[in-house]
Amino acid sequence: MKYFYSVSDFYKRKFGCKVYKLSLDAGCTCPTRDGTKGSGGCIFCSAAGSGDFAASAELSISGQIQEAKKLVRAKNTGGRYIAYFQNFTSTYGDAAELEKKYTEAVSAEDVVGISIATRPDCLDQDILNRIAALCSRTFVSIELGLQTSNEKTARYIHRGYSLPVYDDAVRRIKEANPDIHIVTHIILGLPEETAADMIKTAEHCAGAGTDGIKITVLHILEGTAIADEYLAGRIRCMGMDEYFSILSEIVMHLPENIVIHRLTGDGPRKLLLAPLWTADKKSVLNAMSRYFETHGVYQGKYRGNIVIPETGRSDCQFD
């Protein structure tokens, strides 16, 4: 069997139990939406700012947590929670007000950590210091939306910042508090990118010092700018085997200590235009497991001997 360092193993190693994420909304927007760096956001981003599964921002943070818990109650048998500020750019706002929301979240019952999704260009020293201070009371993760290391692609998707900004953000986060767990988001299948481009992005993240990585295929969602390109026939989406092939290369190039938080995403079905094979996540994960086994895929294969986490091996466990 072949193995990789799954987020499930990471959480079990750290907390001794299953951990579920509760998707929350801090009430923020993004600089590529409010006119600071553009309008409309990144061309792949839905109107909900990647928070289509988050609780309503009309509720208090405590109220959102209670609603989010209901969604996982049936499958939660003794697990704990991480408060995940997912929508838009969750550090883009008044630092003092955001700190109150973060603190309210980590004070909730059975919440053992906080994860804050943001952009590398929206981490000024004030908000970063406030986040770093939370490490004294809970597990803290910052999730950075990079998507690609290719500057041409970054301009195409209207990302709004250059690659050195990401590198600097990783450095400053670790300087603020080395205990902060950094997760970097990347997308495979962005227009005109080659397999080499995608592998280079993952390797750049590893070299910059990310602790974890989230990988997904490009989703075409109704109402996004990239949907117009797709419907006009100017771009195509990756097939499942094509995605597995490139994903496998990335996994085998990744250092063994990097936590793989996600190997595929699932966009909201009511908005998904393509690729439709992603709509059934369970089937995709089962197919991916078979592909990895058949092709001898394991994390760090191209970097030497694999290091198995203390909790033992995960027989192709996907999260």
Helical amount among residues, as a percent range? 25-40%
Number of strands: 9
**Main sheet: which strands, in order across?**
1-2-3-4-5-6-8
Biggest sheet features: 7 strands, parallel
Shape: globular
Structural category: alpha/beta
Low-confidence parts: 305-319
Describe the structure.
There is one protein chain. The radius of gyration is 19 Å and the shape is globular. The C terminus is likely disordered. Helix 2 links the parallel strand 1 and strand 2. With 319 residues, it is of the alpha/beta class. A seven-stranded parallel beta sheet has the order 1-2-3-4-5-6-8, with helices on both faces. A two-stranded antiparallel ribbon has the order 7-9. The protein contains ten helices and nine strands. Helix 3 packs parallel to helix 4, helix 7 runs parallel beside helix 9 and helix 9 packs across helix 10. It starts with 6 loop residues before the first helix and ends in a 25-residue tail after the last helix. The chain is 35% helix and 16% strand. 44% of the residues are buried.
